[in-house]
Amino acid sequence: MAADLGELLVPFMPTIRVPKTGDRVYKSECAFSFDSPESEGGLYVCMNTFLGFGREHVERHYRKTGQSVYMHLKRHVKEKTTGAAGGAIPRRRNGKVFLDLELNRDFNGEDYEYEDEAKLVIFPDHFEIPLPNIEELPALVTIACDAVLNAPSAYKKQEPESWDEEIQVSRHARSLRQLDNGVRIPPSGWKCQKCEMRENLWLNLTDGSVLCGKWFFDGSGGNGHALEHYRETSYPLAVKLDTITPDGADVYSFEEEEAVLDPHMSEHLSHFGIDMLQMQRRTENGHHTDNNPRPRVSEWEVIQESGMKLKAVFGSGYTGIKNLGNSCYLSTVLQVLFSIPDFQRMYVGNLQRIFDYSPLDPTQDFATQMAKLGHGLLSGQYSKPPMKSELIEQVMKEEHKVLNGHQQRGISPRMLKALVSRGHPEFSSNRQQDAHEFFLHLINLVERNSAGSENPSDSFRFLVEERVQCCQSRRVRYAQRVDYCIQLPAPIEAATNREELLAYEAKRKEAEENTRAPPEPVRARIPFTACLQAFTEPENVPDFWSSALQAKSAGVKTSRFASFPEYLVVQIKKFTFGVDWVPKKLDLAIDVPDFLDLSRLRATGLQAGEEELPDLMPPIVLPEDTRDNSMSSTDSPEIDEGAVMQLAEMGFPLEACRKAVYYTGNMGPEMAFNWIIAHMEEPDFAEPLTLPSMMDPLPSTSDSPMGATPLDNLPPEESIAILTSMGFPRNHSIRALKATNNNLERALDWIFTHPEEEESDGLSDMADTEPNDNSFSNMNSHSDSTLSPDRETSSPRVKDGPGRYELFAIISHMGASTMSGHYVCHIKKEGRWVIYNDHKVCLSERPPKDLGYIYFYRRLSSS
């Protein structure tokens, strides 16, 4: 038999490889589906590429590559049997076969056991060789099989590179000496004992000193008094006060110079009168929210609809996504995108074509992984209701509470996340992220990977008309830019419960001064109309250079819609930055409407009687021009000294006041005051006013000596692809990037202001950059959109239409900042709202429309 097996494998020996350092072995999930060794058909691992394939997809790989030898992995999961004494008998067969293969479902390890089996399968005849079979297999094959079975999973290869290092227990935690000095820490009103600072405060666990931090492990700012105290006393451990929860806190060891764990935290804090059980709970992966329990608890309960008997739903479009640990921001965005027909059609409708034409390594192909995830969400294959017999069995065992969690396992986005986050410092980490930032990042990837084909992100793209007016000359300039989301301010001053907010703030300050417990927080209630009004109001343009005056002046900008997208994304600007530069969330409730009409915000363009600003560029300022070019008596500009003195009397530096009056064109102290507020954080705020030497205006920044790109060098291909995916011809995109030193945002402005140069060169590229005439022929019938590339090849593709919309999805955030917390989304499907909370999918009883972070609207039909 040994000779027979050896002879059978001889023709395939050159194709069998032993995994080397750096090879990723995909033995836990199929590259095209979410099949795993636990699936009915198991998983096939190619012995040459080490890619994994489910039963439905392994034949495709064999036909495409000719690779014939695969290792078939199968894991049988079953409930543990009970012994005579009533205890569970753990049993695992072939325990070493699946070394380092993580379970693909969330089992209770005390209730389940698994049996593993592996075998070699030779295609196309499906000849099977059970493993292990050391005596009968050639040595090379045996070594290769052992290496595959013992190799860490492909994802564990990535973790040391992209995920955070595990925090270790401090060596001081167990033997920490605490002084019996009678110090008790109040529940609020903390401030540094040396500098009065009230944020980024650290409690020394030895003597109870409350001192400010400095720029160290968590990136927070301060005056460093906590570190100074350690150098004076050698007391090693400190805990950050606003991170204490029932599950722990952020602890830093000065002696070990790193963040650490303190297993005895509760005991150490109780020494100073702090009861951890009364503090706010942690978030999904151990990251803190804040120490104001009441609003956050309410927010968590309302958004997740806690306390309600939510009915689980199954089937197509009702599949959840597993949380990989702070990956809910990704899950919510993907759930919403794949509820939109354009994304469904692009990735799921073209599934077979995408899979058939995928590269040799489909795990690194964006379209393949998007199609895989879209099919997983929409097929219903991974969201099947429990069988009636299973329901009866669970009820008999009184385990019905566990049933929904066991049945709704969801799909894992691990392969897609590894691909889309590769090279990104934030999304490749295991930290919580901003869902809005990830939405824009994903749309950017869709744009890059849709060149020359249907682009589903066209549904979100729209044009914004920006009208900038010089306050001194009253002349205007109109420009257009591309956007995918409108960001609405949340004006607190417009709150309908303003008096209640003022009363709360007064009580809070009083409690802080008297070191008493803070009053019950009050949530600001802001009308949506006030947010929309704030968005449309004129805003000051910082450092505005007026081409009419050939100098800096005061300028105001207003924005309107030059086109309306088919799907409108609205982000509420709930986040701001604290003293420690950590994003913090404003506690807001906004009455967002189900139906929205933005028709009145349609752009009108240049109006009769308006005079345009000259099309001139600001002068180039050379570095040496600004070093010692202080104002002298010979070239001193005209400055309203009266306005300067009014501002100086308010306590602002004299030189800052002079700059404010100069840069606002002597428009008065009020305008100059606004300039000061906008620029007072800049490092050169109080430096003397320096004037650049005036040079002849240049038509393009491509002549700049600083970092300019030579005309005979092509811009980065990635930047060209982004512009061509928006519908701009390739040659015109290259010229725009060269003229703007490869700055994408400025390149877009350049394209809009230089359409006449595009005529002759653009036509030759249309075949490569424009979609077919029928690319969007199967759009929803309610959309009367038009595609601008059919009319003007110099404009990006947009689906313009009426500005009337209906709300269909909400992404909500719970927690104190974008760096922590949890995301949940609600989507309206088949006339009913559905809540997607990681792997759990249920019918919503009360969608939290007033607490959302990102809102998604679909355009209403024109009828």
From TrEMBL:
SUPFAM superfamilies reported for this sequence: Cysteine proteinases, RING/U-box, UBA-like
Biased composition (Basic and acidic residues): 789-801
SMART domains for the chain: UBA, ZnF_UBP
GO BP annotations, alphabetical order: autophagy; protein deubiquitination; proteolysis
Biased composition, class Polar residues, residue ranges: 772-788
Domain USP: 319-860
Biased composition regions of type Acidic residues, renumbered to the chain: 757-771
Stretch list, region Disordered: 757-801
Domain UBA positions: 638-679, 714-754
Binding site for Zn(2+): 192, 195, 212, 225
Highest taxon in the source lineage: Eukaryota
Gene Ontology MF: a single term: cysteine-type deubiquitinase activity
Domain UBP-type: 168-276
Stretches of the chain forming a coiled coil according to its record: none
Family the entry assigns: Belongs to the peptidase C19 family.
Name under which the protein is recorded: Ubiquitin carboxyl-terminal hydrolase
